[in-house]
Amino acid sequence: MDGLHVALNSHLLSGQAGFRRAGVHRYIHDLVRGLGEIGNGIRLTVLAGRAGSVPAGNYSVVRSRWHTDRVPVRVTWERLVQPTVLRRIGAQLVHGPVNVGPLAAPCPLVVTVHDLSFVRHPTLLRPGSRMYLNLLTRLSARRAQRVIAVSKHTARETEDLLGVPAARIDVVYHGVDDCFRPLPRAQVEAYRLAHNLPSQFVLYVGTLEPRKNLERLLDAYGQVRGQGFRLVFAGGMGWGSRDLHEKVAELDLADEVIIAGYVPDEELPLLYNAATVLAYPSLYEGFGFPVVEALACGTAVLTSNSSSLPEASGDAALAVDPLDVDEMAQGLETLLTDTSLRHELRARGLAHANRFKWTVTAAETAQVYRHAAAQRNSS
Prior knowledge:
The structure is a single chain. The chain has 379 residues and is an alpha/beta fold. It contains 14 helices and 13 strands. The strands form two sheets. Strands 3-2-1-4-5-6-7 form a seven-stranded parallel β-sheet, with helices on both faces. The chain starts with a strand and ends with a helix.
């Protein structure tokens, strides 16, 4: 077959429902699907684990017999086995889609850097994860022929914190699946009733972990409680999530806060449509999937005015200082009480979200592959 032969490491694709099917899983899944759809001179081989849910598409899949759903096994496979696999299949380029790539690859490397939270906010990650990411992301980004950053903010961070020259960094935004769109009210109402959700509520979507700033969100909600709006947390339990339950009890909010747990991907569009407001006051993001997904569903959004979130939200959300609980509370009250503002933001949000398409992400990623291969051939 003709075309540039690209191997993409998809071992972080999850085969089970849970918090591991959050942003990283979605990026790999939808990028693989998009690359398979566009073709565009790329012959793709997906390197997969035993249990990863690889979408059907026009590409080859090479599965490992290793149990790479276990972190130590996956890390060992990536470091020691992946270079051999690349040689065997004759890959002309390898893409490490989540911060790291094989340092001993026999072909050019492209690596996607999602965020550098392990550098900016080291105490918000487990020590082992922080040390691994700090070392391997630096080495991978410096060894890579091209580095993909998922936002302009991440591109600046990659240059400033990892020392990668700007000339080797390409910004390629994530896409948003077409399933995220305004849905018929009857369908949304049926979903709300079936899941016993309140008629009006503030929604958070994402992994429940310290970086997401959920304790301050609870403090802010505590200031505006009693107005008929509940607070719903939808996401898998990540590291440090037990503190959230303790915080709810401390603020005596058990009757007003719903911790729904992980919500399957197919239900997320309905959940966004059912919400009155999405609150996503994260301390640090490389992109911010939930913000754009909610905007695409026509839901008003309150988010942070820092890191990549202004890029994800554009002029279509109410942005607040994530460290200022009073400002966050005021923002929540404004969105919950100002119906005309929510309608205005809905119109802006739908237009803004329309810019983020997986077909565009895949096409721009394929162009990075070709650029990396051409640079290697000319050097």
